[in-house]
Design goal:
Helix content is 32%, strand content 20%. With 524 residues, the protein is an alpha+beta fold. Strand 14 and strand 15 form a beta hairpin. The radius of gyration is 22 Å and the shape is globular. 50% of the residues are buried. The N terminus is likely disordered.
């Protein structure tokens, strides 16, 4: 059944009173009839999507639910509530996303009232976590904590989020989703190069903090590295520029063709100069010209693994790796318990499906790190575990062609066992379809799900291999190139092993495995 776009008024009215419509939604779902488009629209507005590709009829009643984490951080009370939801209402299945949010699976409509109340009790919501509106803002997971950060953008992130939330009647029915990044991270973890609109802090020669404005970035099939707008933005201007860009996209984005309904398509139609002129017209003033791009950290160095001294006296923060972003419910609870045991201040989510525990007394940091490491979440991870991302895949996504999460976990374990001495930086992604939600487009090795024929001619799950992706500012970024090679799922680990072996045998004059992958041509 085709879905229709709800009007802004309809969505707003529903979203203000979610519990009033839950009973009707539940009755419709229990009656075995398809949910109406109005209910589907409301559910998406509250971060919920039906499980599509599950095979059993019983599973059709389940939903994925995304929780909106405003500044990437969870305090101890919020962490405890989310871990309880994961265990009691999500069958112990919890995912950390590459937009710094938490996703639950196997959520039932009948449990929504209590889940919403639990979230509200600790200041959390799933409202505006998805749908065609402003998505949660990408930012530094260690804002206000890292002694090496350029600027603490936490207040700006909250200011912009609050503005969109309070004015949702104006920003709840965009042509499509709108992704923003605001960060002062010294390691540029917010990946500004692939956001619709992003603000990246830097310091001038006079030690003034400004933000470099980039627009029109994005991944999926119509991928594009963001343009520098050649404008610098002051702290006091960030909210107004964000809102101006949102209004321009809302009023001028392509509503006739969903495949062309992102900020980048509008900029490409208009030209960058016209888009920047429209921003300044809405602002009523000119932004400072900024022709020079700030120094940007290469993608492979945008991590915070290990134990680090924090800004706060006698405190540390510790970066841990998951395995492909999936956390077992009992592990989530155990992590919450350990944080409470050592009186940590909270947990922050990274854009690479990993996490950081902050506000730890430095005298306790090693003990806390060792206890979480013992759960299977290392603070000194292997290159395979550190930066392998995966999407939800065929298990829950209507676009999925291949299984990803559990498969990716096995891939990581096998690569660690097969190559214990491999120490180079390596970014990999396993995606269940060409939309590439796990970011294979910007990975050193990207695996994009497809059907391939095995040695017996049978069609099986497999992957198109892409090589050489990178993020490093406007000029240094590149998308992974299609190698022309396809591998079956069972052969994927062996394929990576052969690449490592060929590099060790002949590195083609390259000093790193990453550079080698951007150079090597594979036999098809």
């Amino acid at each position: 059944m085709a879905e229709k776009e709800l009007s802004a008024v309809e969505v707003l009215k529903a979203s203000r009173n979610p519990l009033k419509v839950i009973e009707d939604i539940y009755k419709e779902a229990e009656g075995g009839t398809p949910l109406s488009t109005e209910y589907i629209g409301l559910l998406k507005w509250y971060g919920m999507y039906p499980h599509i590709n599950t095979n059993e009829t019983e599973d059709k009643k389940y939903f994925m639910k995304r929780i909106k984490i405003v500044d990437a951080k969870l305090n101890l009370e919020q962490l405890a509530v989310l871990s309880k939801i994961g265990r009691e209402y999500a069958q112990g299945l919890v995912d950390f996303t590459n937009r710094q949010n938490v996703q639950f699976h196997f959520i039932e409509i009948k449990d929504m009232p209590v889940i919403l109340e639990m979230l509200e009790s600790v200041g959390l919501t799933s409202r505006m976590a998805s749908g065609d509106g402003p998505r949660p803002i990408m930012t530094s997971p260690v804002a206000g904590i890292d002694a090496d950060e350029i600027f603490d953008a936490s207040a700006l992130v909250k200011e912009v989020d609050t503005y969109f939330d309070k004015n949702d009647d104006r920003f709840c029915n965009f042509p499509r989703k709108y992704k923003t990044g605001i960060s002062g991270c010294g390691r540029h973890t917010a990946a500004h190069e692939v956001q619709d609109v992003a603000f990246t802090a830097f310091k001038t020669e006079n030690d003034e903090v400004l933000f470099d404005l980039t627009v029109g970035g994005g991944l999926s099939k119509s991928k594009q590295i963001a343009y520098r707008a050649n404008r610098y933005v002051k702290e006091s201007q960030v909210k107004d520029v964000t809102v101006a860009c949102a209004e321009i996209f809302r009023d001028n984005g392509n509503r006739a063709n969903r495949n062309k309904a992102r900020v980048r398509h509008l900029i490409n139609d208009w030209g960058l100069e016209k888009f920047v002129d429209a921003i300044e017209e809405k602002l009523g003033y000119k932004l400072q010209e900024g022709l020079v791009e700030p120094k940007i950290t290469p993608f492979e160095n945008r991590t915070h693994f290990g134990i680090h001294k924090a800004k706060q006296e006698n405190e540390s923060f510790i970066g841990f790796a998951t395995n492909s972003g999936r956390i077992a419910g009992e592990d989530f609870q155990a992590i919450s318990n350990i944080c409470n045991k050592y009186n940590a201040k909270g947990l922050a989510l990274t854009p690479t499906q990993n996490f950081i525990i902050y506000g730890v007394q430095s005298s306790d940091a090693q003990n806390l790190a060792d206890e979480i490491d013992a759960l299977g979440y290392p603070y000194a991870p292997s290159p395979f575990r550190a930066r392998l991302q995966s999407c939800t895949g065929i298990q829950f996504c209507k676009f999925g062609i291949t299984e990803t999460k559990e498969f990716a976990k096995t891939v990581v374990t096998q690569l660690e066992e097969n190559h214990p001495d491999f120490k180079e930086n390596l970014i990999m992604a396993i995606s269940g379809c060409g939309n590439g939600c796990s970011h294979p487009q910007i990975s050193d090795i990207g695996f994009i799900g497809t059907n391939v024929r095995d040695e017996n001619g049978k069609r099986v799950e497999g992957y198109d291999v892409h090589l050489g992706g990178q993020l490093h500012g406007e000029k240094g970024s590149r998308f992974a190139r299609k190698s022309g090679v396809k591998v079956t799922a069972p052969n994927l680990v062996g394929f990576v092993g052969k690449l490592i072996a060929s590099y060790n045998e002949d590195n083609l004059g390259q000093s790193t495995f990453k550079e080698y992958l951007n150079t090597v041509e594979l036999e098809k």
